[in-house]
Amino acid sequence: MSAARAIGLLLGVAADGVIGDPKRGRPVAVFARAARRLEGRLTGDRKLAGAVYAGGLAGVAVLCGVVTERAGRRSPVLQAAGTAATTWAVLGGAGLALDGTALARDLEEGELEAARDTLSHLDPRTTEDLDVIALSRASVETVAENTANAVVGPLFWGAVAGVPGLLGSRAITVLRKLFGPRPGQVAWFAVRLDDVVNLLPTRVAAALTVAGAPVVGGSAAESWRAWRRDTTAHPSPNAGRVEAAFAGALEIRLGGRTVYPHGVEELPVLGVGRNPDAGHVTRAVELSRVVGWLAGASSVVLAALLGLRKR
């Protein structure tokens, strides 16, 4: 099973890079639409309903993963195929690269309305009044955050727990994203669950960012310093770790005042360089790809090593 899992992860990462997202019926988007419809039907004790809602949907995703693995447990080929298909379905690396490239192009060409529209589908912050610098900052932050949540996280849990880990971790991330940073009784359990599930993967993503920084002409030393120095004041146990590592790698400043529909948040400033521009968004996309490749290779090695330990 360990070899089949490792091969499946490798094939899934390759499929995401070569094939990209399906044009229609992308599983993550289908799950998000279903979750949003169910959210609108929640009644009664909002806090309890939120726990049942998030826990139930995440549990269903994990159960589907268990069924998939059991169906192929007697055939290494089926096991690898199931892992590969699931990895391809949940990874967001290719889609993130396309969106990030579109943002960089629109910012370079001065198409700010198009950039605001693209960003609004990726990030919950208010985009109407953002200028070029603010849009560039938000774009780099979004690329960094989604690299951790949509690429590194699923691969980490896929290596550790197979198909259930792939589906469960991605489902939890999607649920957190539906609520965004807004407070509320329904959101509390999804937020806490996401904090726990991404505690290790977020730090793995930051470490891979440090390692991959020189590949895109960035600074590994600054990436490390920003990660270790600037996130200590961040109110979240995970948010800002990868963003700080990206900021240091690209030698720019991220964070600071951020406007959301529910209000303004004064977040820690990450990095000590200049304000970002469209060119930094392009380099952030390149860095995201490098981190994704490193995460893919690391997940294959981790799955193989965990398999050897079980023997």
Structure description:
The chain is mostly helical and 311 residues long. The protein is built from twelve helices and two strands; from the N terminus they run H-H-H-H-H-H-H-H-H-H-H-E-E-H. The protein has helices at residues 2-18, 27-39, 46-71, 76-90, 93-109, 112-120, 132-179, 188-197, 199-212, 220-230, 241-250, 278-310, and strands at residues 254-260, 263-270. Strands 1-2 form a two-stranded antiparallel sheet. Strand 1 (254-260) and strand 2 (263-270) form a beta hairpin. Helix 1 (2-18) packs parallel to helix 4 (76-90), helix 1 runs antiparallel to helix 12 (278-310) and helix 9 packs across helix 12. The longest helix has 48 residues, at 132-179. The protein is globular and about 55 Å long.
| Overall average residue pLDDT | 91
**Cross-sheet strand order for the largest sheet:** 1-2
How do the helices and strands follow one another from N- to C-terminus? HHHHHHHHHHHEEH
**Outline:** globular
Strand and helix layout:
Layout: H1 2-18, H2 27-39, H3 46-71, H4 76-90, H5 93-109, H6 112-120, H7 132-179, H8 188-197, H9 199-212, H10 220-230, H11 241-250, E1 254-260, E2 263-270, H12 278-310
Antiparallel strand pairs: 1-2
Helix pairs in contact: 1-4, 1-12, 2-7, 3-7, 3-8, 4-7, 5-6, 5-7, 5-12, 6-7, 7-8, 7-9, 7-11, 7-12, 9-10, 9-11, 9-12, 10-11
